[in-house]
Queue: 2 jobs
Job 1
Amino acid sequence: MSVTELPQSPTAGLYQEIQQFYAQQMHLLDDGRVGEWADTFTEDGVFAANAQPVPAVGRAAITEAAAKATEAYAAAGVQRRHWLGMVSVESATPEAVTARCYALVIETPRGGRPEIKASTLCEDRIVRSGGTWRIQDRQITRDDLI
Amino acid sequence: MSVTELPQSPTAGLYQEIQQFYAQQMHLLDDGRVGEWADTFTEDGVFAANAQPVPAVGRAAITEAAAKATEAYAAAGVQRRHWLGMVSVESATPEAVTARCYALVIETPRGGRPEIKASTLCEDRIVRSGGTWRIQDRQITRDDLI
Amino acid sequence: MSVTELPQSPTAGLYQEIQQFYAQQMHLLDDGRVGEWADTFTEDGVFAANAQPVPAVGRAAITEAAAKATEAYAAAGVQRRHWLGMVSVESATPEAVTARCYALVIETPRGGRPEIKASTLCEDRIVRSGGTWRIQDRQITRDDLI
């Protein structure tokens, strides 16, 4: 894809909606609000990562995996922050968006120093569902495992 | 707050205004332009942080604290960069916005390597004042002190 | 420049176009698609950095420098990610934009940990050319070399 073939820029409204959605979504996870975070995926949502042997398929499986990780971080006294940035909306219809962004996981232990635990590529299919945006498919590629 | 109860997305114009405001505000501080940076707070602005025993209240107190820190960094030959991201506009009227974002402080000593000195949550009340946006209340929560 | 003299906020559409342009541009470079990345500069584009003795002038020189670096990173098994953020659009006409942002280079070796290799200031002149935005002049100031 050459630059002149890059998709036409999405409407400004759509682009900021995705930015706001990403921010709110990750605030929920980093605040430990797992159920509400999982609700940002569709019921049949897929969360796949090259760090995991098999994808989590369906909101129940996504919730279970996130709850386990969230409890482990809380027990360890570590605050996570997920930073999504460099968002590129690759295609958009009124009902579905594909987006590609970078994601960092920054962890700070209580009394300790922040560290970047993972640098990743995040590829999403986001759909309108129940009056809001939800992730239907998320693919996370951790840079150290490429 | 469930996802379906998330505030309606602010207008795209407002969202980008806040992003631009945050960028310009922190460029001023990182450039050592303390007076102009302090002018991005209201006269009665509050800057509170869990790293400080008491909040700085009023622009004069905010200026004084920032000037002191800025001189110390300059004397040490350290360039700071404040990164605000993952911006979520939580409520908005034409005159006042509440926003929640993440903020990193990245420091680079002359001839040295960049390091993340602090990972924080930033909660702002931003108001229209004198024809521009200004911070009326900023609460910074450093992750290592939670 | 005092805050009250800050340029009027650009249209939301323009601001998001620049964000999307930056994301796509750096995705190309980090994906090793050097030719397409170089095509995001004008034919007479300039890439200057305080880390380099002389600027790269013209798309051919920019391509050559980027290709060399890209091959070295690939050979070393290191994934780079360029994060541009804290974007401030400083001036804008329908044909040309000046913008100032921060840029981080985050590197992850295969099997290793991500590290911030460089924290920089990025100052761009971006012009409409051939139906799209292209960089006409980019000045990178690495914080460790100030």
Job 2
Amino acid sequence: MERVVFFISDSTGITAETIGNSMLAQFEGIPFSKHRLPFVDTPQKAAEARDRIRRSFEATGVRPIVVNTMASLELCEIVAYSGGLMLDVFAPFMGPLERELGVARTGLVNRSHGMVDFAKYEARINATNYALSHDDGISIEYQMADLILMGVSRSGKTPSCLYMALHYGVSAANYPLTDEDLEGGELPARLRPYRDRLFGLTIDPQRLAQIREQRRPGSRYATLEQCRQEVGRAERLMRAEGIPSLNTTHVSIEEIATKIFETFGIERTLF
Amino acid sequence: MERVVFFISDSTGITAETIGNSMLAQFEGIPFSKHRLPFVDTPQKAAEARDRIRRSFEATGVRPIVVNTMASLELCEIVAYSGGLMLDVFAPFMGPLERELGVARTGLVNRSHGMVDFAKYEARINATNYALSHDDGISIEYQMADLILMGVSRSGKTPSCLYMALHYGVSAANYPLTDEDLEGGELPARLRPYRDRLFGLTIDPQRLAQIREQRRPGSRYATLEQCRQEVGRAERLMRAEGIPSLNTTHVSIEEIATKIFETFGIERTLF
């Protein structure tokens, strides 16, 4: 029996969805049908949301789950009449926080995913542009890089760099190890001055071959033999040069970023 | 007085940080010093985290705030001895969810930011590759696009496309309106078959000139006059062709994505 879940918010709904997904992940095997109701910031929109949740209840006969991050108590009350199971994410913590900090909450719309701090937002965008323009090993302004990811083609460097830039404003460059680099068996000359900012990504050859086969079917580049040879050489190079590395085969970009930040002691928090 | 906040998690800490940031945003004017303690998944690591929080308490004399998403009650108890103000994010909701769903939570480490669903993860990576290779208006495999963002250079198209791809697996192409397109005053021929997937981004000319000036100082491209002309023509084109659009000047990529999904009725939720 599929359970319907609504994420309701006066802003993007990203916070509601993030915590909602984490909680629902604790109930494996139950299929959830998830819906986001963002920008619910007027009584009119709250009434529309309430009606939509109520219709779902009536249609399925099963109580919908409502994960709610609206700041306004007035709007929360309107939606509470939907009949759904209301999980008010902030409610249990606001009292303790107010007492601890000695001030009342503002009650303003949750703008944590809006452009609150313009300088920080600009840093994210600039870092993203940096990652995009240092994604090929050709541009060499590595002195600007917070860190440099190295690895063979399709080991996960590009999405990881983009994620770290978009969410943390970390300027991450990307150096694809070429056959020439790998045959040499030494750190490429242009990377040597930045040794303390290098991080290696590696991957199981079987998985790499699958990914490359999708991209260039039937190519030598995608053969298991070629992948084995490249990965083996890359891993030997990283070990020999003492470069920290991570196997990305079963690891998401969120986990890759977190592990890299741990390695370098980067305590950058989400913008 | 700066308040120290720890986000503690048995996984990446992204959920703890996301909800923590949203709650702290309700207390404007208080400076917070934020620290993430990820991958706390053994009693040993929990004891280290407890000691670190306790040292912060002793050093500052002010109780740290601890936003906690660890699933294991055993680990939560260890950290509770830190003396910090414990905000256990999931605790208030797990009982109601268990009763509603009729099953007990698994209590397993929160893997909601890990590679739980491989097919979904692959869709994110494939969409990111699509966005990267359709970022210039030259590639023309628009039949594959879920949507196409159009706008003048530096109106916010690229980071928005990357964000939608990385987090929602939405394949978004990016069409930069050229002078030639704008002089013509009509929808470029190659976009016409995809009219129902087009979304326009626009921006205040003053802000656009600032962004362009950073990129190409002193160029004609960055003059206010040029920006005014391009933006004016682009907005007229979008209006004339009935293309939905959004002014991105004060809007974050998270908000842009959410508004675009609303416009197209895309109910895609976060992976």
